[in-house]
Amino acid sequence: MDLGRLKNKQQKETFLAPLVSLRQVKKVFPPVRGGNPVHALGPIDLDLRAGEFFAVVGPSGCGKSTLFELIAGLAPATEGTIAFEGKPIAGNVPDGIGVVFQEDSCLPWRTVRANIELGLRKSRLPAAERDAKVGKVLELMNLTEFASHYPAQLSGGMRQRVCIARTLVMEPRLILLDEPFAALDQQTRLLMGEEVLRLWRAIGATVFLITHALDEAAMLSDRIAVMSARPGHILEIVETGWPRERDSRILEDDRFGPTAAHLWRLLRNETLRAADAR
Ligand SMILES: Nc1ncnc2c1ncn2[C@@H]1O[C@H](COP(=O)(O)OP(=O)(O)OP(=O)(O)O)[C@@H](O)[C@H]1O
Ligand SMILES: [Mg+2]
Description:
Blueprint: H1 9-16, E1 20-29, E2 38-48, E3 53-57, H2 64-72, E4 79-84, E5 87-88, E6 97-100, H3 112-117, H4 127-140, H5 156-168, E7 174-178, H6 186-203, E8 206-210, H7 214-220, E9 223-227, E10 234-239, H8 256-277
Parallel strand pairs: 3-8, 3-9, 6-7, 7-8
Antiparallel strand pairs: 1-2, 1-4, 4-5, 9-10
Helix pairs in contact: 7-8
The protein binds adenosine-5'-triphosphate and magnesium ion.
Adenosine-5'-triphosphate (ATP) binds next to strand 2 and helix 2.
């Protein structure tokens, strides 16, 4: 898009404004049973750009899930501000944000279709519109054939697709995923990654993915934040420069190896530094 052609100043600002912005965000958990408070995160400054695929990697326990919960509005920050589309996030998951967790959270007593419909129940949409939305998402996630199956009749990868579909049906502008493929084998993970890339292109949402898999982060993302050991800070934001049209074959690209190696170097140095400091 040629910004010079956007005549209206306000329009220009809206386009350039970050979708999510964190300023000096810090999280300290109160002491558990007479112990010490845990400084889990920050202070962090971070802007997510509308439409990008953004990943976060970092050592275990560095505060990734904490960061995820803060952006999702599931927990309050101890200090600092977080805004989604210019409005402060406080209290609950804002409209426009969809959340996918690590664990398979399908309801076993509901069919695939009923699981996906769940979120729409509250929105007072006419039944026909609701069915149309669910139908579209079933198709997008290649689940149409399995609409009447129960979760126990699906593979782990398919169940995770149902969880993603359940979020997608709400048409979020920002999708937050916390290690969504962690329980899957490597091959399925790569293929699920491809599906998420396809969806990301199809729906034009912004994706924020937490993962411990460096190859996954390097393959999927436009930008990757590498976090320090706890309290988590952002050590570096790596830009991959991948084209929007991409899939797992990016693994064969000459630039893939150096990108993944750079992530590993940052993370390895950080883990060693943190171990020395103990
Ligand atoms: N509700 C809580 N109460 C107290 N401490 C917490 C709470 N949630 C997280 N923590 C602490 O905050 C720190 C960061 O935890 P967090 O779950 O964010 O790490 P993570 O980077 O997601 O780790 P992993 O890669 O293992 O998932 C840990 O030391 C953890 O013990
Ligand atoms: Mg976590």
